[in-house]
Design goal:
The complex is a heterodimer of chains A (about 80) and B (about 210). With about 80 residues, chain A is mostly helical. Chain A is built from five helices and no strands. In chain A, about 15% of the residues are buried. Chain B has two domains: about 80 residues, Rna Polymerase Sigma Factor, Chain: A, CATH 1.10.1740.10; about 100 residues, Winged helix-like DNA-binding domain superfamily/Winged helix DNA-binding domain (Arc Repressor Mutant, subunit A). In chain B, helix 2 crosses helix 3 and helix 2 packs across helix 4. Classes of the chains: A mainly alpha (about 80), B mainly alpha (about 210).
Amino acid sequence: MNCRDYVDFLMAYVNDELPPDQAVAFRQHISDCPPCIHYLETYRETLELEKQAYAEQETLFEEAPEKLVKAILAARGEDKI
Amino acid sequence: MEQAMTQSTDNDQPTTASLLARLRAGEDAAFEIMVRAQASRLLRVARRFFASEDDALDVVQEAFLAAFRKLDGFQEGARLSTWLHRITVNAALMKLRSRRRRPEEPIDELLPQFDDRGLSTHLPREWTGHAHELLEREEDRKFVRASIQKLPESYRLVLLLRDIDEWDTRETARLLGLTTGAVKVRLHRARLALRTLLAARFEVEAS
């Protein structure tokens, strides 16, 4: 397995979906190619970063912008007619 | 002066039968309670899809109107917040689809490059910190969100739906009108491209 194949299999490996023989070849490649260890690690960091980048905003309670609330209520009034 | 609202729906609670009954009866006050309780959360959902705040505001408005028209389809006991979230995502996708498509930037330059033997031409290095450390800084969280925004739209949408919103592959395929195979390929490329964009900031300097 070379670096290109390794990257192709990355998502399946992280999802634990690689067939056993390919998983063996994947791990063999990592042990032979240190930069690909960094690639796997930083791929995993990427997943965590993207998933968490919005998380704090989700728990934050903000009041709805008054302009938006008014616009929605007005639009509903027109929608009913 | 703003009218003090003493009633609200809790985002995590199933919708009360009484609020639903009042909504279905067309009661204006009930509609206002729903809007005030849910609008800011739905605006945050809509903002992920658009660079422009006006577009996000339009989508939330459209979602509430669509929700109101579809109230009969809302199942009692379901969560109003989940139902509205889905309607908002649909409204966002519809707005994006309605636009005349400009040719999309190719994603290839953001994907890892290899030589003829399939070896990496850029040797990946470690990053300056782990995600949980980097996420402590608002400027870094902003950078991650801005990097997601930079992905070409057809990849960004798959990443938003699969990884951020956590729809499964089949539902994402249905929402975007793609095959499940295409969703998997795009998600894979979107993640690789995002890794490249993030590496520009987080990778340690070459020694």
